[in-house]
Hints:
The longest helix is centred in the N-terminal third of the chain and has 20 residues, at 2-21. The protein is elongated. The protein has a 7-stranded mixed β-sheet with strand order 2-1-3-4-5-12-11, with helices on both faces. The protein is of the alpha/beta class. The chain has helices at 2-21, 35-48, 64-76, 92-101, 127-141, 161-179, 189-193, 202-212, 218-231, 247-258, 275-282, 294-309, 342-347; strands at 25-29, 55-59, 81-84, 105-109, 121-125, 149-153, 183-185, 238-243, 263-268, 289-291, 318-321, 326-332, 335-337. It has 13 helices and 13 strands. The mean pLDDT is 96. Bound molecules: beta-D-galactopyranose (GAL). Beta-D-galactopyranose is lined by residues 34, 36, 110-111, 156, 160, 162, 216, 246, 271-272.
Amino acid sequence: MKKWLLLAVFLALMIASVLHFAVDVGVVLPTNVEPRWVQDETRFREALKTTKYSVEILFSQGSPAKERENVEALIAKGIKVLIICPHDAVAAAASAELAKKAGVYVISYDRLIMNTEAVDYYVTFDSVEVGRAMGRFLVEKVKPGTKNNPLYLYAGALSDNNSFLFFQGAWEILQPKIADGTFRIINSSEAQKVQNKKNLTRGEMAKIIGQITTNWDFNVAKRKAEDDLTRARAADKGTVYILAPNDGTARAIADAFRADKDVKEYYITGQDAEKASVQYIIDGKQSMTVFKDVRILVKDAINAAQLLLEGKKPTTTAVYDNGKKKVPAIQSEIQVVTKDNVKQILIDSGYYSEKDFIWPKK
Ligand code: GAL
C-alpha cells in the first residue's frame, strides 16, 4: 500500500512539474547584445502580464546553432506557437520546419524566414518604407541646385532579409538623384555600376550589400567608415550624406565622420529609436531615426498567437513572398523622428520618459 501511495505521489508531482514548466508560446530573439532586441524583450514582458498563456523568451546570441537549440528546447516544453526573429533568414528555415513537424504554429517576427513553407504568419513593420523614409530624408537635406553631393552607403547584414527591403526602399528614392548628378556615390563600386538602374535584382542588391554591409555590428560599421574616409579624397568630404541602416551602426559611423577634419557637416540616417541614438539626435550628432513602435509589433505578435491558440485565424494586412510561399503578414507603419519632433513622438507617446535624456538648456 505504502509503495503504491509513494508511486502515486511521485506521478502526481511529475505531472504537476510538467504542467508547471509547460510553455504555450516560445519567443526567440536574435541577440541581447543589440539594444533593439532588448527593447523587444522588455515590451514582450510588459505585454505578457495581461495574457493567461505562459511564454518563454530566449536569445540566439547571433548563432544559428543556438537558435535551433532554443527552438528544440521550446518544442520540448510543449509550445503550441513559436514567435521567432531569425538571426539568419535562410538557416532559420530548418528550425521553423522542426517546429512545424511538431504541430507548432510559426510566426516570423520583424524579420522574414526565407525559403520554407513552414512559416504561418509574419508580423513586421513596412521595411521598404523604412528605406524610403531614409532616402527621402537625405534628399530633403540637399541644398537645392547643388550637384555631386558625396553619398556614403551602408547596409545591414546579408543574412537578414530586412537589409534587402531597407536598401530597396532607399535606392528607390536615391537612385534618380544619383542618376541626375545630385548625389555622387563615394564608397561602393557595385552601386556605381548600376546607378542608372531604378529596380535592382536581388543579386545586384546582394553584390552592393556585400560590399557595404555593417553586419549589424558597431565595430564593423566603424571600421568600414574609417576605411572609406581614409580612401576618400577631400573633395569627397565637406558636407556629406550618409545612409546608415540602423541606430547602432549610425552612431559608430557618425563618430568616424565627426573625427575626420575634412568632414565639415554630415547628415546621417538611423532606425529603431534606441535611447543612445535619441540622445545623439538631441545633441545633433545623428540626424534622424526611423521609429518602429515595438509595442505595436509585440501586441500584433501576441494577438496572433492568442488567436491561433483559440483556433482562430489572425487578420492580415499584407503578403510577403519568402521564396517558397506567399506568407500572410500583419504590417505596421513607421514614423520619422528628428530633433524637431522627438518630444512629440517618443515622450508624449509614453515610449520613453523625458528624464531618460539630457535636453539642451532653454
Ligand atoms: C533588422 C531590424 C532592425 C535592426 C536590425 C539589427 O532586421 O528590423 O530594426 O535593428 O535588424 O538587428
